[in-house]
Amino acid sequence: ARTPVTVTVTGAAGQIGYALLFRIASGHLLGNDVPVRLRLLEITPALKAAEGTAMELDDCAFPLLAGIDITDDARAAFDGVNVALLVGARPRTAGMERGDLLSANGGIFKPQGEAINAGAADDVRVLVVGNPANTNALIAASHAPDVPSSRFTAMTRLDHNRAKTQLAKKAGVTVNDITNLTIWGNHSATQYPDIFNAKVNGRNAAEVVNDQAWLEGDFIPTVAKRGAAIIEARGASSAASAANAAIDHVYSWVNGTPEGDWVSAAIASDGSYGVPEGIISSFPVTSNGGEWEVVQGLEISDFSRSRIDASVAELVEERDAVRALGLI
Ligand code: NAX
């Protein structure tokens, strides 16, 4: 039998954790033949709730679930970790300044980066879901100097999946007919969903749709503000769809992307497309052999250029702010 893969989930007692853990344990994260050992990291007051979730996981009798450990100690949680899903974060509350938000998250992602550096397995892959995801990933990565920076990523796959469905609806097709979509930049309201390089049944999506007013007035804001629309409708933020996107991200990373298509993920920039080196920005990416690679040579129109630049500028500002706070 295969050695179980150790998967650590932070914020395991939260609502994304609740939607995520059962899918990991049932084989959706890595494959239906890969046993997993779960490590749940929570803050002390939430340990009891995490234990409740673990009881339910036990009660599923998942054949692939080799064990569950629950802890409030980051060192224990990341010891030997192969896949780390950093979901727990400090949300912005009313009246909170950006500096306070970044500091509070620095207090979470700095020690977690250090713990990953100290104990993770050589093949560790990290996905940050907790917001501000791109910058939290940058903080964690900068405290893990022994781990290649390419192993720290942030999630824009939910934005990617949202864009896919919106484009499919507009084009009157299903998501199976949509390929080559890209989310560029930050996982925030400035993100840029790019349909100019996307395809609908192999045809250029922007030409198929041919509706710039829809693109600017409907598509881009609908994708960028979808999180707020979910909160408005559901009375709670996206959870199952966020968990699903985290599953998609790791599955693509580990098992590869289909020939001829790509996905979106926020990874450390190598300077491609003029994005400053080192910031964690969303790109069109393929995965082959377990490593993300930025898709090169795409044509970037003036419209796309200005949108990408605006989102990247926001990421540069966030990086400068966490640098000024001594968090990286
Ligand atoms: P919840 O508030 O339901 O759960 C968060 C959990 O994290 C809580 O149980 C809390 O105790 C735990 N936690 C806090 N600090 C921790 C620490 N230092 N170590 C371990 N656990 C800690 O939030 P939920 O709805 O699950 O969302 C989690 C995060 O995902 C939020 O930051 C949210 O903004 C972010 N999201 C990111 C998305 C993305 O696309 N990148 C989309 C969905 C979601 O909004």
Automatic annotation (TrEMBL):
Keywords for this protein: NAD, Oxidoreductase, Tricarboxylic acid cycle
Broad EC category: oxidoreductase
Binding-site list for NAD(+): 11-17, 105, 112, 129-131
Gene3D superfamilies in alphabetical order: Lactate dehydrogenase/glycoside hydrolase, family 4, C-terminal, NAD(P)-binding Rossmann-like Domain
EC number(s) stated in the UniProt entry for this protein: 1.1.1.37
Entry keyword annotation includes NAD: yes
Active site annotation, chain numbering: 187
SUPFAM superfamilies the UniProt entry points to: LDH C-terminal domain-like, NAD(P)-binding Rossmann-fold domains
Binding site for substrate: 92, 98, 131, 162
Similarity comment text for this entry: Belongs to the LDH/MDH superfamily. MDH type 2 family.
Protein name, UniProt field: Malate dehydrogenase
Source species of the chain: Longivirga aurantiaca
Encoding gene (name): mdh
